[in-house]
Amino acid sequence: MNGRRCFAVGLIGLLVCSPVNAQALVAKSTTAGRSVAITFDDLPYVHASEPGAEDAPDRAVAANHAILAALARYRVPATGFVVEQRVRALGLTGRDLLQPWNKGVLELGNHSFSHADSNTLDADAIRREIVGGEATIRPMAEAAGRALPFFRFPFNHVGDTIEKRRVIEALLTERSYRLAASTIDTSDYIFDQAYEHAFTRKDKAMRKRVEDAYVAYSRRQIAYYAELNRNVIGYEPPAIMLLHLNRLNAATMTRLLKLFREAGYRFVSLAEAQSDPAYAQSPRMATQFGPMWGYRWASERRVKVDGSREQEPPEWVAHYAKEK
Ligand SMILES: [Zn+2]
Predict the structure, then answer these.
(1) DSSP 3-state of 38
(2) Ligand 1: distance of its center to the CA of 27 in Å?
(3) Which of 9-13, 203-207, 243-247 has the lowest mean pLDDT?
(4) Domain 4-322 belongs to what architecture?
(5) In what helix (H) or strand (E) does residue 106 lie, and over which residues does it extend?
(6) 84 C-alpha to ligand 1 centroid (Å)
(7) 259: enclosing H helix or E strand
(8) How far is the CA of 189 from the centre of ligand 1 (A)?
């Protein structure tokens, strides 16, 4: 999951430095017209199918309610990417939780049947993952007169070879999908592991500490990726925030949305974000990792980036998550 740094380090020394397009720099100022699309992966609930999670339906309901309330408060469009197996793991609750995501400014997206890693699958298996991922959401969207325009691959793995990437693109075209991009990653799953551990230990003070560290780290990551994209393609395209449907984001969603507001962003749909020319085609490169689009654009354009400038989450977070 955290492959972007390996990827970034791999870029150093391999690529020559090329200046960004000066005209584009002139055309777009640093913060004017900033926008962001908010997206969630692993709906209806990231931990839905983990063993021993008997109260997963209750947790899923609470997390969805909190996130939807925060989105509504700020009138934020959002796309929720669904894993069919996790819908089924929650029984009737799973399907019910998707209904609000199929209305108004919210929309459903396909995130595969079982969250399998495309690096390990052949074309037929990838097709089964895509088609199987539609079982609940395709009829639901169509009954509401809606399309299902976006697919996002688990781990953002979209081709570990050029051949695989071409296969993936052909499969998406066959099913009338656009590949969903992502430009901001906050490693929320690492913080969430610590957060869940604090729940298990009934340590409320630690939960608060994790929330605060996560929001602080998110603030840095939002700024980091804006700068990365500016340096690589010469302007800030609409950003696309990658989050997961978990209890940490449920607890911090209002604070995360405020970070964007304070930095001058307006909230747009994923379709509006990806109408920017930067997203006209998927970056033409292959990687076994799941880097954000800024790193992919850098590879495609042979722009050298120093991935070490991207800070890791604080060490104590991952350490605490593993404590017995
Ligand atoms: Zn996922």
Answers:
(1) strand
(2) 36
(3) 9-13
(4) Alpha-Beta Barrel (3.20)
(5) strand 106-110
(6) 11
(7) helix 247-262
(8) 10
User: Which letter does DSSP use for residue 321 in this model?
Assistant: H
- 22 CA distance to ligand 1 middle (Å): 37
- The 3-state secondary structure of 169-227 reads HHHHHHCCCEECCCCEECCHHHHHHHHHHHHHCCCHHHHHHHHHHHHHHHHHHHHHHHH
Rounded (5°) CA angle 293-138-83:
55
Facing residues of 273 across strands?
A: none
Task: Kindly give the distance from the C-alpha atom of residue 72 to the centroid of ligand 1, in angstroms, as a whole number.
Answer: 23
Quick check: 56 and 83 in contact, CB under 8 A?
Answer: no
Query: pLDDT for 150-189, tens place per residue?
Result: 999 999 999 999 999 999 999 999 999 999 999 999 999 9
Distance 242 CA to ligand 1 centre (A): 10
pLDDT for position 307 = 86
Kindly state the DSSP code that residue 311 receives in the 8-state scheme.
P
* ipTM of the complex model: 0.99
Give the Cα separation of 141 and 315 in Å (integer): 42
**What's the gap in Å between 23 CA and the centre of ligand 1?**
37
